[in-house]
Amino acid sequence: MANMNIGRRTALKAGLGLAGAAAGSGAITGFPTIWAQNIRNITLRQFGTGVSNLNALADKVKQDLGFTLAMTALDSDAVSQKAVTQPRSYDIADIEYWICKKIFPAGVLQPMDVKKIKNYDKIVPIFTTGRLSPESRIAQGTAPHTVSFVEGPTSTKFASQPSGWMTLIPTIYNADTLGIRPDLVGRPIRNWRDLVDPAFKGRASILNIPSIGIMDAAMVMESLGRMKYADKGNMTRDEIEKTTAFLIEAKRAGQFRAFWKSFDESVNLMASGEVVIQSMWSPAVTAVRSRGIACTYQPLEEGYRAWGGGLGLSKNLSGMELDAAYDYINWYLSGWAGAYLNRQGYYSAVLETAKENMTPDEWGFWMEGKPAQSDIKSPDGKVLEKAGAVRDGGSFAERMGQVACWNSVMTEDRFLVQKWNEFVAA
Amino acid sequence: MRSASYLLAAPLWLVLGGFLLVPMAAILVVSFFDYDSVRLIPDVVLTNYADVLLSQVTWQTYLNTLKYTAMVWVLTVAVGVPVALFLAFCVQSAALQSVLFLVCTVPFLTSNVIRMISWVPFLGREGLFNGALMGVGLIDRPLDVLLFSDFAVVLAFVHLYALFMVVPVFNTMVRIDRRLIEAAVDAGAGPWAVLREVILPLSKPGIAIGSVFIITLVMGDFTTVRLMGGGQRASVGLMISNQIALLQYPAACANAVVLLLLVLLMITALLRVVDIRREL
Fold first, then answer.
1. What is the ipTM of this complex?
2. Which residues of A touch B126 (CB under 8 A)?
3. Rounded to an integer, what distance in angstroms lies between the CA atom of residue A360 and that of residue B225?
4. How far apart are the CA of A229 and the nearest CA of chain B, in angstroms?
5. Is A130 a member of any domain?
């Protein structure tokens, strides 16, 4: 009731021409599906990890579309818990593709009709066909396209090819690798196996999230030539056993200084010099650098481990809220959000529209691997890189084209967790 | 009269029933469920308990947790009893006693995570302590064992929980009848004999209550072990928290039930040895 009152009052103001621009903005940006008065009463509740649950996006949505987006940022464990166990507590789930593989079959989300997604055809093909370009190979793990579609509007079964019913609309993705302290490692780093080089004994770290940590370990194993995996993202029991045995061996030899679980832990380990080489996420590298400490997101010969996230709609969404959610998703792909994410070093789903919202210099630096012409700034105006800098790993095609595996969930994940606990306890 | 006493006890019963017994019953029930990567499957299976009890990792983890508990217990007694002794017997004025007692609680005005995290820059390789040691020339390269080690975990525990020992011990000590001490002195006992024969035996209930706090806090902890151990050390709480994170609720519940039984067993044994009811 209280909401209604506020709505009427603001509508009245709008009528008086005091806030006409705000009320009419839905029409201006081209998403006029909902009456301006009603839309102001709508609140969509979105949750996800901190990487993409940004208040700047919610503010812009309010400005452009008129409705309220209430964001909740959680850590990735809490995200999957909330998605599965409290489906009535959210309207939009901002989740990763590998979690989607677990969550969608639980029947808490509804697939999206791609006919209602304006820029669907422009979405990077990694998410639809799995191939960045027709000749590129499909990476191991939970590649997004394998869980992007279900067979029909009420289905929870993943479709093997684009079916018109999409589980998640991709928002943000990136290629992960090792972060290093170039000033302290004392030699060029080229391979995943350098993580277990005895030269870095007691100064290496690995992330303590079983499903991801094991893949970093698998990259190391393959790089050492000790093992070859059919699918690093879905190992057999035997492979899991051998990989954790290898990790335990390295741990007992004192290779690792610590294991990290949260973003800030990895930043602190690196910035304090406790660790000189570790698995890392790209914003963590940026955070270390912003303290004036050299840190490189080192491209490696064996390629990257990639991850991606997207927006999914709660099963409980219907009517006007559902229309608003589609408006929101169309807005997300329309460029402003994409440019915002690209400027943070992530990649966005529709590159064309993002490009229109970036300066040629920004586009050249972030996406084409060109030296920056002038200082590169973060979306909030902080200088991230000085003129002349080149992005670690180079262009979009070089980085996303070198993906060796995607974050994933394994069939044997119960066994994996047991083995991982063994590693932590060893 | 009787109905009045039931009525007085009712709020507590409601709170305990609704927020302790019901959730615990739920945990017990779920511990027999089956599960896959997202769902709980209502069932009665013993696999969760088999996974807990038959795995070597669990035993190792429980042993490690018990080791932490024992070390922390010994150290908090070693720190807590002298502090309580000082407060209760050396400080004569009651006002000063209260002031000093409050001083003990000052660190508790900050959150325990902050108190714990603040050790990290102090103990790190580039930390103050290593810097100081190298500065005076005692060592020529930083000591690694100071941080992300058992040492760091136990240190943080003692720092966090020593007060839980000080308070009950102090509380018992101030209530010791001073005439008993005078009598002991008159009978020719020296300070050590007074301590050994009079004060410590009479402080046992306080030590027991403090021990209950320490045992339950350390056995159930997961943040201290994770942050101070650098993720490389295991504890039962951490194992449970990992299982919850991976949506393996039945496994976590089975683990929690086993942990609960173990802690209850330890506390029962303790209360068998010391009669704390004299204290209450």
1. 0.75
2. 272-274
3. 49
4. 23
5. yes
Examine the domain organization and report whether A170 and A187 are in the same domain.
Answer: no
The domain in which residue A292 lies consists of 179-305+410-425
CB-CB neighbors (< 8 A) of B246 in chain A: 77, 210, 413, 417
Q: Do A202 and B144 touch (CB under 8 A)?
A: yes
Taking only the tens of pLDDT, chain A with its 426 residues reads 344 444 444 444 444 443 344 444 444 444 555 555 677 788 999 998 877 788 889 999 999 998 999 998 887 778 888 888 888 999 999 999 998 988 898 889 999 999 999 999 999 999 998 888 887 788 899 999 999 999 999 999 999 899 999 999 999 999 999 999 999 999 999 999 999 999 999 999 999 888 889 999 999 999 999 999 999 999 999 999 999 999 999 999 999 999 998 888 899 899 988 999 999 988 889 889 888 899 999 999 999 999 999 999 999 999 889 999 999 999 999 999 999 999 988 999 999 999 999 999 999 999 999 999 999 988 888 888 889 999 999 999 999 999 999 999 888 888 898 898 889 888
Q: What is the CATH number of the domain that holds A297?
A: 3.40.190.10
Cβ within 8 Å, pair A417-B242: yes
**pTM across the whole model:** 0.80
Asked whether residue A273 falls in the same domain as residue A415, the answer is yes
Domain count, chain A: 2
